[in-house]
Design goal:
With 482 residues, this protein is of the alpha/beta class. It contains 19 helices and 14 strands. It has a five-stranded parallel β-sheet, sandwiched between helices. A five-stranded parallel β-sheet has the order 5-13-6-7-8. Helix 8 links the parallel strand 1 and strand 2.
């Protein structure tokens, strides 16, 4: 067995350090001053949680970091992690009007991190629990971003919210499953503490269906939120898949998050199967942890890969290689992995691929990581809630406006309904579900977050009954010119 730690603690810390360091005050000020504080800011429309982006950036420019962080966290309680892991180039920054001027977009993610880290690092409490309790209880199954977003919103609306998480720590993939150089567990756990500070109870090491029954939760709570995420990685179903050096990508990444970095074992030659963002996380970290060769094998072509282009660039800069149009047919080895047998593929004319006859070849390696996507948790859902409606793919069916399922007391959100999207999408689902629960239990509709207007962007409180952008010509001309 050739798996072993390959870097020192110092090397690991350097290799897995954050890609983009925190802004200095001067850097943040310069970047914030570039923002045009648009009237109908397209960056807000591109943010699933509707953060008032011009508003928080203006506060940074005015040296009001606490107010800036408050603006962010009121819309997205996981603003610290989203600042690090959001694909900003295809969300807020991708919608920045500066691109229309052939200029670089405002670095919204880095500015968001700068503001939120200020309150996190200095233990400044900017969110407060509801002054009045409603006397109603909600149970949340799973402790990932969707449940945290839902629980925080519920707590601020006056509900008693309790999260049940089977792992030792809450946070879901933020704590256990994202590349270390993007997001460390410490950042995720600070956000968990922020949610707890709102009055949310989090019970870790408790598995629903084993340590507590769903029937008990439904009987003792006014509503239940399902934030169970996805299950295991899909199998390859090839000979040799059960050899000890074959890992699921999230299993490998979790080890990085739960062990000292210099104790994480990797192979000398690592092959990652798949080409999504999780595959990139796995291959880059294997390389940064000392693998001599870290390679992605993908059955389709370069233009077909689901990974974002900036993720692809990271892997190439790290020295990772890519083998396209290749499909695993067997993992080789007697007791331990010695290689992988691949076959060349080509388009089948129907949107898929087919194996090229006689094209098999062997690739030496001593570690294989599967990053093929995750299974829907159909069996678990059928066991916990036999009457719950699922679609043909195994996703939970719900009302997209309220996140309510066909079972009136049960609401949902996150990867269990969208099949695996971004952290920010899960938080948005959780917020929407909390408001759906509030509407069902209290008969009240919560509006917002209100999109910033030019008036909102210069400091007038938003989210206080303004349902539509309001133009104030005198102020627009005074602050922004004719």
């Amino acid at each position: 067995m050739n798996l072993k730690p390959r870097v020192t603690a110092e090397q690991a810390a350097e290799n897995l350090a954050e890609i983009e360091p925190k802004y200095t005050p001067q850097e943040a000020k310069v970047e914030a001053d570039r923002c045009l504080y648009c009237f109908d800011a397209p960056c807000i429309m591109a943010c699933p949680t509707g953060i008032d982006i011009p508003g928080f950036i203006k506060k940074i420019a005015n040296h009001n970091l606490t107010g800036s962080a408050r603006t962010i966290l009121e819309s997205n309680v996981l603003g610290a992690s989203c600042a690090r892991v959001c694909p900003t180039s295809v969300l807020c920054e991708g919608a920045c009007v500066m691109l229309d001027r052939d200029k670089q977009p405002i670095k919204i993610g880095r500015l968001q991190r700068y503001a939120v880290d200020h309150v996190m690092d200095n233990d400044i409490q900017v969110l407060k629990p509801a002054a009045k309790k409603l006397g109603k209880k909600v149970a949340l199954v799973g402790g990932g971003p969707a449940s945290l977003g839902c629980a925080a919103e519920l707590a601020r609306l006056g509900y008693d919210a309790t999260i049940y998480e089977k792992k030792p720590e809450a946070g879901g993939l933020n704590t256990y499953g994202i590349a270390y150089y993007k997001l460390t567990p410490e950042v995720s756990l600070k956000e968990v503490e922020l949610v707890k500070s709102l009055g949310v109870e989090i019970k870790t090491g408790v598995e629903v269906g084993k340590d507590v029954t769903m029937e008990d939760l439904l009987a003792s709570h006014d509503a239940v939120f399902l934030g169970i995420g996805l299950g295991h990685t899909y199998r390859l179903d090839v000979p040799g898949e059960d050899l000890p050096e074959v890992f699921e990508a999230l299993e490998f990444i979790e080890e990085i998050h739960t062990k000292p970095l210099d104790q994480v074992a990797v192979g000398a030659r690592v092959v990652v199967i798949g080409c999504g963002n999780t595959a990139i996380d796995a291959v880059t970290q294997a390389k940064r942890l000392g693998a001599d060769d870290a390679k992605i094998v993908y059955r389709r072509g370069e233009n077909d890969m689901p990974a974002y282009s900036y993720e692809y660039d990271i892997a190439k800069k790290d020295g990772c290689s890519f083998l396209f149009h290749a499909l695993p047919v067997e993992i080789l080895g007697q007791g331990h992995v010695t290689g992988i047998r691949l076959a060349r593929t080509e388009p089948d004319g129907k949107g898929g691929v087919k194996v090229v006859a006689g094209s098999e070849f062997d690739l030496p390696c001593d570690m294989v990581i599967k990053a093929l996507g995750q299974e829907k948790q159909v069996n678990l859902l059928n066991k916990l809630l036999p009457g719950l409606e699922l679609d043909r793919s195994g996703k939970i069916v719900c009302d997209p406006a309220t996140m309510q399922t066909n079972l009136p007391k049960v609401f949902t959100g996150g990867d269990a309904i969208n099949g695996g999207r971004e952290v920010v999408n899960a938080v948005a689902d959780g917020k929407k579900a909390a408001r759906g629960i509030h509407r069902a239990l209290a008969g009240e509709t919560v509006e917002g977050p209100v999109q910033a207007t030019r008036l909102g962007a210069i400091g007038k409180p938003t989210g206080s009954g303004f349902d539509k952008p309001v133009r104030v010509p005198e102020l627009e001309q005074a602050f922004f010119g004719a």
